[in-house]
Design a protein that fits this description.
Elements lengths: L7 H13 L6 H19 L7 H22 L2
Helix pairs in contact: 1-2, 2-3
Length: 76
């Protein structure tokens, strides 16, 4: 059976269920994944959102760590 979440929340839930609970990814990586998603949502839909250097640095560092962990998982 293929996994086909229909929402961003569904992807988050499946990621937690399949990769965090078994220790492949850490709870910190999960939390950062969620925080970066929320920043993106704010940037797209909140007209009053003002991105900061701190937001951008956090998002870039979180993405780099997530990419590193993903490459380790895939053994690349």
């Amino acid at each position: 059976m293929a996994l086909q979440p229909k929402t961003h929340q569904g992807v988050y839930v499946k990621f937690n269920e399949l990769f965090v609970k078994n220790g492949t990814f850490s709870t910190l990586q999960r939390d950062n994944f969620r925080a970066v998603f929320e920043l993106r949502q704010s940037g797209d839909y909140d007209l009053d959102f003002e991105p900061t250097t701190e937001n951008a640095t956090f998002a870039l560092e979180s993405a780099a760590e997530f990419l590193k962990a993903t490459k380790q998982y895939l053994d690349l």
